[in-house]
Amino acid sequence: MYGWGAKTIMGDVKINRGDYSLFESALKKVLPEKQIYTELAVRFAYGTDASCYRYIPKIVVRAQNESEVLSIIKTAYDHQIPVTFRASGTSLSGQTSSDSVLILLGDDFVDTKILENGAKVKLRPMVIGSNANLALKPFGRKIGPDPATINTARIGGIASNNSSGMCCGTKDNSYHTMDTMRLILADGTILDTSDDQSIANFRQSHASFLESIQNLAQVIRDNPELETKIRHKYRLKNTTGYGINALVDFTDPIDMLAHLIIGAEGTLAFISEITYKTVMDHPHKASALIYFDDLDNCCNAVTSLRQRATVDSVELLDALSIRCVGAHITQNLPNFFYADIPDDSGCLLIETKAENDLLLDQQIEFINNLVKEHHATEHSSFSKDTVVTDFYWSVRKGLLPIIGGSRPQGSNVITEDVAVPIERLAEGVRVLTDLLKKHNYEEGMIMGHALEGNLHFILTPKLDNEEEVKKYDLFMDELAKIVAIDFNGSLKAEHGTGRNIAPFVKVEWGEDAYGIMRAIKSIFDPKGIFNPDVIITDDPTLHLKNLKAMPEADAIIDQCIECGLCEPACPSDGLSLTPRQRIVLWRQHQELVRTGENPELLASIQRVYPYMGIETCATTGMCATRCPIGINTGEMMKALKVANRQPDIANFAQSHINGLSKVARGMINVSHAIGSQNSAKISQKMHSIFKGIPILPASLPKSVKPITQLMNDDAKQSVVYFVSCVNRTFAEGTTDHVSVADHTLSLFKKSGFKAIFPENYTSLCCGQPFESTKELLANEKSVNRVNDALLKASKNGEYPVYIDNAPCALKLFEAQDQGLLDSRIKLYDAATFLVEKVLPELTIVNKREHLSLHIPCSATKMKAAPALTKLAEACTDDLSFTNIACCGYAGNKGMLLPELNANGLRLLKKNIPESCDHGVSMSRTCQIGLTEHSGIEYQSIEALLNHCSQ
Known about the structure:
The chain is built from 38 helices and 26 strands. By secondary structure, it is an alpha/beta fold. It folds into 5 domains: 1-276 and 498-544, 2-Layer Sandwich (Uridine Diphospho-n-acetylenolpyruvylglucosamine Reductase, domain 3); 284-495, 3-Layer(aba) Sandwich (Vanillyl-alcohol Oxidase, Chain A, domain 3); 567-640, no CATH class; 651-688 and 702-840, Glutathione S-transferase Yfyf (Class Pi), Chain A, domain 2; 844-948, Rossmann fold. Strand 25 (918-921), helix 37 (924-934) and strand 26 (937-940) form a beta-alpha-beta unit. Helix 12 (295-308) packs antiparallel against helix 14 (357-373), helix 21 (579-595) packs antiparallel against helix 22 and helix 32 crosses helix 34 (865-874). It is globular, with a radius of gyration of 29 Å.
């Protein structure tokens, strides 16, 4: 084994796994037992990442903070047990898979600190990349890396994989923009490169460690041919192997050490915190889609753009990719996505940015002339409209799941990621196309970050088929030779080495460089406890083992490729299962039921799935808004849910809504009479006996008083007002009986509207409570009653209909789409109506100093978020966002399953500035949960606008 003080550079890591039962016992002494998962089904689900591999961890651990990570590492080191760290699990090459101990990171690792007026940002590893950019936006800055998964990928993974992306290139990746880092080594030592004392202590305690790193750097300096090779390799995008350019780019071994950690995929150390130097985010930008009917012309245009034009990103799509996108995205794209295009065609998505609009126009003109020189066939024209350009880029970011969603049933998805010198791009695309055809991968599509010569291609083999695996093996062998040797390119440009390319690192780098990489692993991790077999492996067939099967299970979810893009929108993430994990377990359940295999796993799934899968799913469908192909896991959970089967009770309820609302208001009055804190405790005890009894929140709103209908006889316009039953029950706040309707009617009066109430409006319900309990007949009767009342009140659609609660509005919109509500009825959610009809008539005079905005999932699904944001911005000069996609209140689940709401809002306080004491949303139930878990009052958008206007 290579020692830190030795002068030789070669060495191997000994991996002698210890006793897992002893390790588990030791772990329970340093961690709460609830953070240690040993149930088989849970380990199976949590062990899933976006790669083509299926590993089941022996133990899964959730570490909430650095102290707990340190305890786990020390325990693993003592017991010689390998550990793997997981952030979002969107990695595609198997680097976050483990058959040993998988460590999930908790909420203390979500923290962002803006430094030097945005010039730098300090981030902990569980911060989502796009959230870091959101925090930097007021400063006109962003982090350099911009992977396509930035809305899901977290900083720990972005740094550990040296992720780049569409605009990042090589100059703005983590390697080049990392300023300082705090890390934990295998022996438990903490090094903080932002702390001079920490560095001084490390130089003293690890002198031989640093000497060994310097020895490796000297070996490279003594070998000019190797040094030239390293510099060439990192002129390209390259994440194959360790970043040994650190040994030639720096002279201080501390700098070498820190930069070796970037892209090391958790095999050398744990990144506890990282500070980035940020980059400019120019506000003036434009994008265009440009089509070529000749692929050579397309690729040659890219080379010219790289050499002659100011462009920030150029994305390439081949003909197969264009057709696939056109088949899934059926509108809002240029015509060539839907035309019969030749096989030898291609498309470029180009973005250019500038400091001002004049310069941007000059750049656009130059690019247009340049692509004309290369015989562009069709051009969408450059657009500066962010709605248009964001749509283009969302399609590109979702390309992998879009293409994966069109794969044959039961097949897997493998995406490879290579780079060739930009001057050989056209040749590289041709050779890759021929290679795919040679191995009968007719479905193989090529796309990528063309400006860097970075090409991605997607294969969809059935990995449970031995012949398919053999074919894949032959393909990979030939790919490695062509890319690494013939083109002197990189086998992994940005997706990381992982398990998929680990057997080919030596092929790409050769004996000398690979020997240095093995020595690096030995220096940092002499016991081999950090992520073994990732990057460095002795198994030449590692990439063919533990391949993931994708059995058919349900038409709703069969297209899922387990990418995990849905997870940040799920309120049960961290409590039970995410949408991806629900799909993983249900797929496995259905397969085991069919085959009769692995009865232990089947029994485990059946034991945990009712609660972890079905009951704790909010079923709001927010997962579908993050999924590029719109998979709604909540729909499957609804289908699996057992109906209440109490039609008589449901039918009675839907026909006595008014009476039940009165009873609810009476109970609320009683609760406040005995004290809301006491009521919460009593209801908690009663719920523990009978789960059907709701747990009342400590911040329970007051009951509403009867609505006072403000007459506005001078009004020139009329609007039908649908008051939701939740707003006919709960008052606006916790201290008085003012209702949302009081504020709404005041706004109508201020803006010149006369409110018309439907007949028997206090007996109307949108049907949401009955649909969620699968009482379909009661739901249908409710919708029919609403339809008749709204049609009559609106004079067959002459007047618009205002709905004062976002979930109810969404329910009625969906009913109208399904043909259950007359199409003549003009439905408006509150935010859209207020922005279009009311706000222009108001004068804002009393702004809130600070305001926190929560956009409920129903608003997102109705596309009402921009309207709600505009209203909030009108009422404050300092607006912050909760950044919570779904709070998990989910109708009545907030009171029947309060742990879901608590989990969904566990980061809420972190996302509210200390100076902020007012919150706003447009869903009454969401506002109850937000108030409960934030410590500030969240009111309706109607109340806010009424307060701020005259």
